[in-house]
Amino acid sequence: MPEIDEFKNAAACFSTGVCVCIVEKEPDEFVGITINSFASLSLNPCLIMFSVKKQSRFYTVFLGKKHFTINILSKEQKETALHFAKHAGSQLVDSQLVLEKGNQVPFLKECCANMHCELFETHEGGDHTIIIGLVTQVRSGGLAPLVYFSRGFHSIS
Ligand SMILES: Cc1cc2nc3c(=O)[nH]c(=O)nc-3n(C[C@H](O)[C@H](O)[C@H](O)COP(=O)(O)O)c2cc1C
């Protein structure tokens, strides 16, 4: 087994996008967490996956809910990524959100893409839990993504 820091250094060589996952904590109170463990998983059905740290304050809120949104951040949303990384479960205000017809949980504005999901399955993954979501609605635009690489935020033109 490698030392944890060796493992983290190797994993930091993998570049990813950055998302905010939003869930309804209380009726009409939405909270978000920054994640970069997102991946698309299956086309038929349309599934996505990501992992949540079991020690996160967000953990029990998230696993108790059937609906969530995945919001893929654009290159201008570094501050948004930092905000929802520091304050798990930070409340979202209406002006940051857009609730589309038929959605249980709103989308975050000004993202590259948004997905509305239903909780499909969960799996144990060491100190994280792997969440699999069935995608029920998508929306995407032409914005450039925010990229996370080597413990820093970057953009591509
Ligand atoms: C770029 C980035 C990616 C992250 N990805 C994940 C992730 O995939 N899963 C996760 O549980 N936490 C992830 N985090 C950490 C959470 O955002 C952070 O632990 C949480 O918001 C802090 O709240 P906590 O004190 O309750 O853990 C990430 C943080 C950053 C900055």
Write a structural description:
- The chain is mainly beta and 157 residues long.
- It has one domain: Roll (Pnp Oxidase, Chain A).
- Helices cover 14% and strands 47% of the residues.
- It has three helices and 13 strands.
- An eight-stranded antiparallel sheet has the order 4-5-11-10-6-2-3-7. A three-stranded antiparallel sheet has the order 1-12-13, with no helix packed on it.
- The longest helix has 9 residues.
- The termini are far apart.
- Flavin mononucleotide binds next to strand 3, strand 5 and helix 3.
CATH topology: Pnp Oxidase, Chain A
CATH class: Mainly Beta
Strand content: over 45%
User: Helices and strands: which structural class?
Assistant: mainly beta
* Sequence stretches where pLDDT stays below 50 over 5 or more residues: none
Largest sheet: 8 strands, antiparallel
Overall tally of structural domains: 1
CATH architecture heading: Roll
